[in-house]
Write a structure and sequence with these properties.
This is Molybdate transport system regulatory protein. The chain is built from 7 helices and 12 strands. By secondary structure, the protein is an alpha+beta fold. The chain has 2 domains: 125 residues, Orthogonal Bundle (Arc Repressor Mutant, subunit A); 138 residues, RNA polymerase II/Efflux pump adaptor protein, barrel-sandwich hybrid domain (OB fold (Dihydrolipoamide Acetyltransferase, E2P)), CATH 2.40.50.100. The longest helix is centred in the middle third of the chain and has 28 residues.
Length: 264
């Protein structure tokens, strides 16, 4: 009989969900007491660790780490109660999934269906850089389309334009939790706290958390409140022209048609 090892990924159809590797990173940061040392212990670059931690915070809707100054390796970090629960729940989920798969395998023998085939559809991947959990606060619909407003942080709404059929098939309604997905290249950045007059439906205010620049491209990550982030992928020359630095106010601009909605 085939040996089954369950590999759980907590995604809610996000960009980069939470799998075993990211849980190990979270454990490493908690064990080492800093993000820098935790990233090294997990075999990740500092940027990759930050991206993973941002994705986890956005997905779960609450901070998993509390950052403190003066810790080892240049800055301390400890798990929040939510972070502890995530690690514990992940371990329990993997153990339970392994039990279920082992029970299913004999029953599916000879059917052409494996347990892994069966569960693979439950955990879908998407290439969107931004995945933020929130609550639907308003829906405006006509016969063909609907605009859905999702509150992802206090005072921060993201609008998505979906078809009326998607509205019905997903069961979207006011008060329901949802995840908004936005590819980073769809996000434009405008410096300053004042929203520019543009046709983009979404203008999300924030402050620059970090800027990563390569030879051609740059990624600007905004802190949009509630310990959540929004990333934009632009050219390196555009980033230089903006002249932004960490802490500066900025706005993320993107069209509602470029926002996808996923549900649990």
């Amino acid at each position: 009989m085939m040996t089954i090892e369950a590999a759980i990924t907590l995604k809610s159809k996000d960009v980069s969900g939470v799998g075993r590797e990211r849980i190990r990173l979270l454990q490493a940061v908690a064990r080492e007491g800093s993000i820098t040392a935790g990233a090294k212990a997990a075999g990740l670059t500092y940027k990759a660790a930050w991206d993973a931690l941002d994705a986890m915070t956005n997905l779960f809707g609450q901070p998993l780490l509390e950052r403190r100054t003066g810790g080892k390796a240049g800055g301390g970090a400890v798990l929040t109660p939510t972070g502890l629960r995530v690690i514990e729940a992940f371990g329990r989920l993997e153990a339970e999934m392994a039990r279920v798969l082992r029970a299913l395998e004999p029953e599916l023998a000879g059917s052409g269906i494996s347990p892994l085939n069966l569960v693979s559809g439950f955990f879908m991947k998407t290439s969107a850089r931004n995945a933020l959990r929130g609550t639907i606060t308003a829906i405006r619909a006509d016969t063909l389309s609907a605009e859905v407003a999702v509150a992802v942080a206090d005072g921060t709404l993201i609008y998505a334009l979906v078809t009326s059929e998607s509205l019905r098939s997903l069961g979207l309604c006011v008060g329901r939790d949802a995840i908004v997905l936005i590819k980073a290249p769809f996000v434009l950045i405008a410096p300053g706290a004042d929203a520019p007059k543009v046709s983009a439906r979404n203008c999300v205010h924030g402050n620059v958390r970090r800027i990563d620049v390569s030879g051609v491209n740059a990624e600007i990550v905004l802190d949009i409140g509630g310990d959540k982030t929004l990333a934009a992928s632009i050219t390196a020359s555009s980033a230089e022209a903006l002249g932004l630095s960490p802490g500066d106010p900025a706005c993320a601009l993107f069209d509602a048609a470029h926002v996808l909605i996923a549900i649990d």
